[in-house]
Amino acid sequence: MTLIWLRTSLRVLDNPIWQYSGALDQGAADTTLILTPALEQYRQHGYGERKLDLLRTQQKAFAEWARASGIRVHWLEADTYRAAAEQVLQVAHDKGAAVLLADREYGLNERRRDAWLGKRLNAQGIDFTLVDDRLTYPPETVLNGQGQPYRVFTAFKKAWRQRWSEHPVPPFASPAWAGPLPEPEQEAIAALQRYVASEQQRYEEVRNDLGRPVVSGLSPAIANGLLTTRQAFAETAAQATGSGEQPGADKWLDEWIWREFFYAVGYHFPDVYLHRGLQAWTDLVRWDKDHKKLQAWQQGRTGYPVVDAAMRQLAATGRMPNRARMFTAAFLSKDLLLDWRLGEAWFLDQLLDADFAVNNGNWQWGASTGVDAAPYFRIFNPLRQAQRFDPDGDYVRQWVPELAHLEGAAILDPSPLEREAAGYPPPLVIHKEAAERTKAAFKAAKEQNAHLPEDADYS
Length: 459
Ligand SMILES: Cc1cc2nc3c(=O)[nH]c(=O)nc-3n(C[C@H](O)[C@H](O)[C@H](O)COP(=O)(O)OP(=O)(O)OC[C@H]3O[C@@H](n4cnc5c(N)ncnc54)[C@H](O)[C@@H]3O)c2cc1C
Fold this sequence. Notes:
A five-stranded parallel β-sheet has the order 3-2-1-4-5. It has 21 helices and five strands. The site of flavin-adenine dinucleotide has 28 residues, from helix 10, helix 12, helix 15 and helix 17.
């Protein structure tokens, strides 16, 4: 009998758990699957209802698939990780299992839970095997020449790509006994294939076009474990035509490596799971505490049309293009000088693709507190972003309807009279002044840090 506990990797295809557990050969009847939907725990982690709805649907569909394929399923609802682990321990004990296999998770609470459970299983003579799946290479194996984790993406990517060219990892075999795929997985696979076939080549050119970004839209499926980097690389290779350059595909696959990078950062620097800046000195920045500014940002009432368009899109749909995520994040931390953690939490609550490690990594990048090699005085100008990526104002027109009557680029920076007539607010801050204030706040933090002992703890 094979006992498997799946947490995130609720996926039939390319799932190494089947191979590692022997379930490929043994068959479904000898496999017992434990699922422990712990939605309350995810809420405590800050995930919002949109993401939880997707998870619920996915978990149910996977359980149905497993039962239809002949697997015995234990569906154990639990409010917390600890409660889930206690129930799993009991099942392993009752079944007299020799081994429990689980998909490895890299978050801090997840690791603590597994350490807790591992000790207790081992004490009962049960082996606990964690199978790497969500990352192509285990995070402790992608290190620099000094055996240290990477803090800069380009160096990580180079090492990762080098490793891939030497040891590519094709998708894992799926069980011959598997019934038709669960619907969410079926849809995710079809969307991956469609995107690679029809849009991927144009990725580099048009991914930043706010009105019509040519992007995959796969992130909710990826964040919830329905697709893997292995599959993205395999699909791209399968559909490649000729041996020529494929800049669109390369750039797109690099984005997948960003995801692997931020997971590795979270693994090696678990302080980020405790809401600390990766560059510790940035926790000394004196952020503004004006709650009204935060609300204006959340509601899309900052008076910067392109920022407001993006924030309203997020609130209405749970989606926002990457470019807009970059400048709205920068706007919160650099223009409003609000603590980046407030924005991080809002995104986590609202995004359909909310994913702690990826969200945190990007927020810290945007706020210049994280892995970015660029210094804090890189500050996005929101109007310039609008002019570059929404030159005709179509994106703003879609999400800020009270300004929709303004033609062409006029919508990007309405006059005081036009704002008043439309009931649209004046700018919350003047960008140039705000940028100066932010630079001064970061500089002061840096100077303060210089006067502290090197191992000072700011927590
Ligand atoms: C402030 C901020 C917060 C973010 N929060 C999240 C989040 O919680 N969850 C999330 O999945 N992405 C997050 N991103 C990254 C990125 O914006 C989304 O992954 C992307 O917009 C999803 O659209 P897509 O699936 O069409 O991506 P595509 O452009 O088609 O890219 C393919 C895949 O690559 C990965 N990817 C793309 N960009 C990034 C990136 N910058 N960092 C890491 N992985 C990336 C995603 O898995 C994505 O689905 C955030 C970005 C910023 C700037």
